Amino acid sequence: MPILEVKNLRVSYHTYAGEVKSVRGVNFTLEKGEALAIVGESGCGKSVTAKSVMGLIKAPQGEIKSGSEILYNGENILNYNKKQWQNYKGGECAIIFQDALAALNPTMKVGKQIMENLIAHKHMTKAEAEKEAVEMLRLVGIPEPEKRAKQYPHQFSGGMRQRVMIAIAFACDPKILICDEPTTALDVTIQGQILDIIKDLQHKNDTSVIMITHDLGVVANIAQKIAVMYSGIIVERGTCEDIFYKPRHPYTWALIKSVPRLDLENKQELATIQGTPPDLLNPPVGCPFCTRCEYCMPICKEQMPEYTDFGSEHAAACWLHHPLAPKVEMPNLEGGN
Amino acid sequence: MQNKEVLFSIEHLKKYFNVGRDAILKAVDDVSFEIYKGETLGMVGESGCGKTTCGRTTIGLYDKTDGKVLFKGKDVHAMTGKEKFAFKKNVQMVFQDPYSSLNPRMTVADIIGEGIDIHKLAKNKKERQEMIYKYLELVGLNKEHANRFVHEFSGGQRQRIGIARALAVQPEFMVLDEPISALDVSIQAQIVNLLIDLQKKMGLTYLFVAHDLSMVKHISDRVAVLYLGTLVELTTSEELYKNPVHPYTKALLSAIPIPDPKIEAQNTKIRLQGEVPSPINTKAGCKFAGRCQYSKDICEKQMPQLKDIGNNHFVACHMCSGDIK
Lengths: 337, 325
Hints:
The structure holds two protein chains of two kinds. Chain A is α/β, with parallel strands linked by helices. Helices cover 32% and strands 22% of the residues of chain A. In chain A, strand 12 (307-309) and strand 13 (315-317) form a beta hairpin. The N and C termini of chain A lie far apart (44 Å). In chain B, strand 11 (307-308) and strand 12 form a beta hairpin. Chain B is built from eleven helices and twelve strands. Chains A and B meet through helix 7, helix 8, helix 9, helix 10 and helix 11 of A and helix 6, helix 7, helix 9 and helix 10 of B.
């Protein structure tokens, strides 16, 4: 049984302008010890999906629509009572945010912020928790952890703060770790260090990871499975190899093509995706990518495509794979137009 | 590039900031390089390495502490009056954040028109209007956008307005300070293509400041790598990526994840230990010495000079200048 199963997740935000349908029917499964990456541009609903799994969608603005299911070990967390939520958040499922300075409490010593978690979930005494907190800081590679545990977040650098976040997240051996753009605000050399720590701890504790990012390099580094999101739906999902070497959705093609490659020698023009993503206040009836898609057909504008299965969990939602559609070859993904 | 005409010549430029009692932040510390007409010089490095300060001091937005910046042979920081006015028309800047760098209370037409008015580039109102439309179309927007306000645009469109604003005074040289890092991947490609296209059409020279090395490789002719205010390596972009010499450049390039899982799996990465030290009151010697695995005694004591190791490949490292590699 997969550790996490998300079925038909739909999330809306109520704003003064109307209802923003951020997530519009997302399905995925996460096995134990596996890393799933959710990729997409800003506003595609990847963070909202992650927040729903963590139980961070706040009413009344945010609303998880009825019919959505998030099954953790077979149990729907959306039906949890307060006590169960408390156990789940931080204990079973932990999250690392992009902006560590905003996520950490500025008026609290970092050691204490780790201890809080340990006392609440592992029922440790204060002295035990203190020892464990220092141990956690050592584990994520912070030098002089005894001294650093008594300092405040503003005394840490960006990379060090992100390590503290990881220490807090891993303190209670969570079964699921959600990383919401954990390295976007960091420099490349520090990004490498942080990814190494996450991977290392993941393998040691057999944790399942959901990695939210827009950086395809990070995805290739860490993920086993990938879900590509566009305007609130998963347009393609599959293993890392499937998505990078045999992508089936025009949006995935465009996404891969628009990133310049360091290891390849090409100076031709970068492939671009024309236009901008649709407005989720009034999401289109048909395929959301149709206005920017070079293979757009009349049906794309009228009806949402079903998933076509390519075996071993690889599926894409695109009309091009309908038996009646014209055959389109995958373009060369390595070099521009 | 044959018969390269030097547009900017930066000689031993230093820019220090006083940050409290006895604390000096050496943002740019003895940097020398040249910018040739018509080229794109990429400038990369981690945050706090002084790349933005270097760009801003070059065009005179900051006063220098020491050294010289020559624009077509004239000292930028010694210019006054009309000369300075003309210089400011020739150099323009595009900023990182398209949200805070455009005035929210001005229409797009006024933002673009402001430079045209100041430098009296249009004879009458009609010509001014036509020029504004021309630049809007040049950057991929259209006439209808002229009377709107900035908040009505997306990030990518705002960056286009920022570029149109800079182009409106017909500059020769533009400092692009992280123009794409606030944008989404698919939009980044649009802006980079636009910049390359404009350069071809108008014969512009760019100083492209960024921390995204893959984009810098794509757009630049030559790349300068900065570390803690010093220039550690400068060469053509192909040479830099094929044959990096300085240990810092090697580590920086190896740290970038490549969007290909097979390559990522086999790639043996060089992982730097620790973080970039504080640029306040730095020690003598090579600034990278503390994190460098090849560091020897001499590195701690003496600052290495930028040396040509052949093929216009400049490196500042005691261990790899000349034939020691």
